[in-house]
Design goal:
Elements (H helix, E strand, L loop, with lengths): L31 H19 L1 H8 L5 H22 L10 H22 L5 H23 L5 H21 L8 H21 L5 H11 L1 H14 L6 H29 L1 H6 L4 H13 L6 H18 L3
Helix pairs in contact: 1-10, 1-12, 2-10, 2-12, 3-4, 3-8, 3-9, 3-10, 4-7, 4-8, 5-6, 5-7, 5-12, 6-13, 7-10, 8-10
């Protein structure tokens, strides 16, 4: 079956296309219906990502950090590879391999590993700092990589939203920097690069194939890594640890990225990235419900400020 007739993405362009369309670098403004659909898909991705830190915290109750990261990569790759095989998707063109390697290094291996190492000693509230900066960093990477030029209103609203999220999350963590911050800021940079490259590739191949092939490319590292980690780190299987592992593998690592890349391809990387301003606040809500952490009264005020900033970025030109 050709990629165009995929049951998952009927509108995708086959990866074997010889000439990359101009839209990869200078996309047209999407139609209102496409914009609404793209915004919804990107928002679903953000919702899936907001559960990643609480699910990781659950996973760490039964797995070591290296085991959790490598096993989640293997499980997600098996899911993605099964879809690719079942739909007989052709291998990606050679010119796309470098971009897929960036996606693999950023969102498949780098971000999960660095944030999991950070969460050994950091609360989910403190770890949300990295997500608070991620939308702005992704927009900056997009401007450098794809030539996107959002308006001044966009940048002002994006910076204001990032500042509100950072102030709130730092206040939540008591204002103290920890040893986990090096991991978090490293994760910020590498994930922004992976998001940008994945969003660019999603304009020339279906978004689910972008993350699918990136996961498959990691198998030569993730499989031996999982076997080695499991042999050294003790495993204590519980309902929480298994649920956390399954979510970060299927929800965060594959399904969430499928709708996320589709959304970025539809509405553009800068605008999609700003929807992630809501992610730290959603993460904190999940932390209260699932982990028993406590929030301050500043949460609803910050949420309102962030929603205003998101609305401005979505209406801004560019």
């Amino acid at each position: 079956m050709r990629a165009q007739s995929s049951a998952i993405d009927r509108t995708g362009i086959a990866v074997s296309t010889d000439v990359e369309p101009p839209a990869a670098t200078a996309p047209r403004s999407p139609a209102p219906a496409d914009r609404r659909s793209g915004t919804l898909q990107a928002a679903l991705g953000v919702t899936a990502f907001s559960l990643t830190f609480p699910a990781t915290a659950w996973g760490l109750t039964g797995f070591g950090p290296w085991s959790l990261v490598t096993v989640r990569c293997v499980l997600a790759a098996v899911l993605a590879g099964g879809c690719l095989l079942a739909l007989r998707v052709p291998r990606p063109a050679r010119r796309h391999l470098a971009g897929l390697a960036v996606v693999a290094a950023g969102v498949v291996l780098g971000f999960p590993l660095l944030t999991t190492l950070a969460l050994r000693t950091s609360t989910t509230a403190h770890a949300a700092v990295v997500v608070g900066l991620l939308p702005l960093t992704t927009a900056l990477f997009s401007a450098l990589r794809t030539g996107a030029r959002p308006s001044r209103t966009f940048w002002i609203a994006a910076c204001a939203g990032a500042a509100a999220v950072i102030a709130f999350t730092v206040q939540q963590s008591g204002g103290a920097l920890t040893g986990a911050d090096a991991y978090l800021f490293g994760a910020l940079l590498i994930c922004a690069a992976g998001y940008t490259e994945g969003g660019r590739l999603a304009r020339v191949m279906p978004g689910w194939q972008v993350i699918g092939w990136a996961l498959v490319l990691c198998l030569p590292l993730s499989v031996p890594g999982a076997l080695l980690a499991l042999s050294y780190e003790p495993v204590h299987l519980t309902a929480h640890s298994l649920t956390g592992l399954l979510w970060v593998a299927a929800g965060s690592q594959f399904l969430g990225l499928v709708v996320w890349y589709r959304g970025m391809a539809s509405i553009g990387i800068p605008k999609a990235s700003q929807l992630q301003l809501a992610q730290p606040l959603l993460t904190l809500v999940w932390s209260v419900l699932l982990l028993g952490e406590r929030l301050t009264p500043a949460a609803p005020l910050t949420a309102a400020a962030v929603l205003v900033c998101i609305a401005l970025t979505q209406r801004a030109r560019g």
